[in-house]
Amino acid sequence: MEQALKPADRLLHALADNRIAIEAVTPEIDGGRFPAKAAIGEVVVVEADIFSDGHDLIDAALLTRRKGDKTWSETPMRLYENDRWRASFVPVENTTYEYTVIAWRDLFRSWRSDVSKKKNAGQDVTSELKEGLHILKKALSESDRLDPERRARLQRVTEDIARLADPAQQFSVLMGEDLLGLMTAGGPRSNLSYYLRLLDLFVDRKRAAFSSWYELMPRSQSGDPARHGTFDDVIAQLPYVRDLGFDVLYFPPIHPIGKTNRKGRNNSLTARADDPGSPYAIGSEEGGHKAIHPELGTFEDFHRLVKAAAEHGLEIALDFAIQCSPDHPWIKEHPEWFDWRPDGTIRFAENPPKKYEDIVNVHFYRDAIPGLWHELRDTVLFWVEHGVKIFRVDNPHTKPLPFWEWMIAEVRRRHPDTIFLAEAFTRPKMMKRLAKVGFTQSYSYFTWRNNKAELTEYLTELTTEECRHYMRVNFFTNTPDINPFYLQNSGRAGFQVRLFLAATLATNYGIYSGYELCEAAAMPGKEEYLDSEKYEIRAWDWDRPGHIKDDVRRLNAWRRAHPALQQFTNLSFYNAYNDNILYYGKYTDDLSSFLLFAVNLDPLNAQGAHFEVPLWEFGLSDDAPIMAEDLVLDRRFTWQGKMQHVWLNPSERTYAAWRLISPQERLT
């Protein structure tokens, strides 16, 4: 019959088939152009607006599967407000999933609801009971969703109802919960409608969503500024890093460093004979991006380091910086990958008015495609084969977006557990686009959000707007390139404040070594370190007075111990009546892990505030008691009522943290 339909009528039937409206599905990134993101074991919530004409009851389901599988898993959706439906599922594999939404008119539930209303109103429902029996028979003859066991049960119930002479008995059986369950599980779905897209979800391993990074310069680990550090020196530092509680150990580039135009100390244009140069000036006669700087050691040494790090619970992350010194082998081997001036000289890297005389950049088009693209992909794969699965990518916003989308997909096709961190301090839309095209984690503006209004606004954006579905921020407190003005002028208390914020607000955070020592010496008027390790070898006294290592250990221990700190979008800001006190909470859905944090953003002066304990989250009245645990002082006490007071003196402590103990927990 369908073949006999005219083309216009076929279109009419196709349009009529989707009678149920399904729209505003979330997450859906740019109309399905990009995948949403999740991690193994993370609850993924899918929502949609679903509605139809008339008064019939509708139902809906979320369909999920690993991409490439033929069979869908189905999860019932539930109406929770104003035609908005919701369902959730938990992905269990590091792969791409796909999902969509279906909806249908539920004729049996609609009939059941209408008949109940008529019965309760005292109306005769004899005719309606016959309609109900007809719906059951139609399910037996038409539904392809009944397995043999359910079909047999439904057949028995249908025959039993048909044999009953008493309408009251028929009504009782037709209204039974067992029959409703049978029809929900296997009954026909009238006007079954499909959302117009299959949507992708890339599921990362857990470290993509929860990690604590420690960055160090391998060459500064010898303890002697006159001796270049080695991988063996880094191995000797592993217990220190692990004792602080970190799980990712990140190195700036470890490749050979060029000599042409080598930078001297403090970014001087004139280098002394013993100056090591910037590790970002990659490439010399010893090799390029697939080589190791000889003074660090050999590949055998590197393999021992990777193995030793794993034994300490640490994973090595490397810097992937797509830039070259003028001595890089690629310049001679592939001159078509570089920009040349009309006079035959190579164009150096610059960001006017800044110039980088020790670096030249590749270009990605003209004769560089596809050769350069393949080489860069193969460079990442090369280091993956040497045990590295985490890459911090230098300035990805200065390279083409199509390259990143292609390259990351190529690597993940072979190694889906690879993690890419985008070091892009640039315009918001570019940062978000980099996350969309595949970057696992992203640097952020956290480094420059210092006051209460700025932090509240920025974190609200990150945790509630669409970007929460694809952009995982990594809150680094500092980097070799960034010595924030706030830290330069705030003393030890300022370092505690920023550490506390990074570790409790974000699930991914990091510090650059020296932070725990409150290193703040700066180039005058700049957010740059004086005597920066980028240009010289340093030796550190890891126990020098004034350090905050105990704070680092404490915060990393909390992060491991409390599930609330392992989620990002569960953040709520609460009232604290002082603009210098930031007060917020994080909690799991079942309230079993409920943490409150207060931090004095003024590192130079004591501040106090009345604040509200969110008793309402537990369904308690404003004057109810609740037990709490002070995580800093390690003691339990009871708060009476929601209004409380906190006093934070930077000379004593800059932050407070409490765990609320639910009434249910007190009973167990």
Describe the SSE topology.
Blueprint (H helix, E strand, L loop, with lengths): L6 H11 L3 E6 L9 E4 L4 E8 L6 E9 L6 E4 L1 E4 L2 E6 L6 E10 L1 H14 L5 H17 L5 H16 L3 H8 L2 H10 L3 E5 L4 E6 L6 E5 L15 H14 L3 E4 L47 H13 L3 E6 L8 H5 L14 E4 L2 E7 L10 H15 L4 E5 L6 H14 L4 E5 L4 H10 L3 E2 L9 H13 L9 E3 L8 H4 L2 H15 L2 E5 L36 H13 L9 E3 L7 E7 L6 E7 L6 E6 L12 E6 L4 E6 L2 E6 L6 E7 L1 H5 L1
Parallel strand pairs: 2-10, 11-12, 11-20, 12-13, 13-16, 16-17, 17-18, 19-20
Antiparallel strand pairs: 1-3, 3-7, 4-5, 4-8, 6-7, 8-9, 8-10, 14-15, 21-22, 22-23, 23-28, 24-27, 25-26, 25-28
Care to describe what's here?
The relative contact order is 0.08. The model has no long low-confidence stretch (mean pLDDT 96). The strands form six sheets. The chain has an eight-stranded parallel β-sheet with strand order 18-17-16-13-12-11-20-19. It is of the alpha/beta class. Helix content is 29%, strand content 23%. The longest helix has 17 residues, at 126-142. The radius of gyration is 31 Å and the shape is globular.
- Order of strands across the main sheet: 18-17-16-13-12-11-20-19
Query: Averaging pLDDT over every residue, what do you get?
Result: 96
In the predicted model, the low-confidence regions spanning at least 5 consecutive residues are: none
- How much of the polypeptide forms β-strand, as a percent range? 15-25%
Helix content: 25-40%
Largest sheet: 8 strands, parallel
Rg over CA atoms: 31 Å
What structural category do the secondary elements indicate? alpha/beta
| Count of distinct strands | 28
Task: Report the end-to-end length measured between terminal Cα atoms.
Answer: 66 Å
Approximate shape: globular
> Count of helices?
17
